[in-house]
Amino acid sequence: MSNSPPAPIPVLxxxxxxxxxxxxxxEFTVTPRDFxxxxxxxxxxxxTPVTIGTLTGRARxxxxxxxxxxxxxxxxxxxxxxxxxxxxxxxxxGFADLPGPTAEALAVRSLPATAYLTTGAITPxxxxxxxxxxxxxxxxxxxxxxxGMEVGAHTVTHAQLDTLRPADLHRELRDAxxxxxxTLGHEVAHxxxxxxxxxxxxxxxxxxxGYASAVAxxxxxxxxxxxxxxxxxxxxxxxxxxxxxxxxxxGGPADGERARTAPFPDSPRTLGWRxxxxxxxxIRGPExxx
Length: 290
Hints:
The chain is of the alpha/beta class.
């Protein structure tokens, strides 16, 4: 194995794209105007935009037969080559803008992306830990695919998975996957951990539940050496500019931040925070706050 550092791969994490977001998600919301500038910076970088399925070498095959609705052609996963300089765009939760203007902004630029949906937040009659916000619906998930997006799971309730009992963890992973598969009519193979929180036990549970990959956060570049069930992402905040995105595309940090490339071990601070959250959850039960 080469001792040289791995080439950075930017995997961007977006949430909502709107002008007037609820206060609780405002820090992680970008305006449509800024989002368009971000996408143009991605295009200008010369990197090849890919889905998480392509980045991990496991994407669904789309055939001409599937495009006209023949069920027997749908849902097959295939090994796919990963381009030399990839970039991946991801979206968490399933805010209302996603199947509309956000997907349109991606499609008009021929940019693929992966959307991770919190099924309890987008299914009428179900609930989640997410505070109130304009959300898409589960019935709109096929629209995302028609725009060229890949759909993954983001659990049912947006629970902090590394604080759950094994049975509850399995239920979050299984039920979200099943709801999306029933809606889309094919396998859903990719997962995003809510808040990025995970542990060795959570990663093993994700694999046992049938997911082929899982993304975390970590606010660092991914790489070809990154862990398949802990893919690092760069979390996009409202203060990030097109220049910051351009720097990420070049493998550097955003203004005022430091550059890191996965894989790397969890810090003592991360491990301590996990223990604290676990103890808090045993006393207070599941909650949204990090």
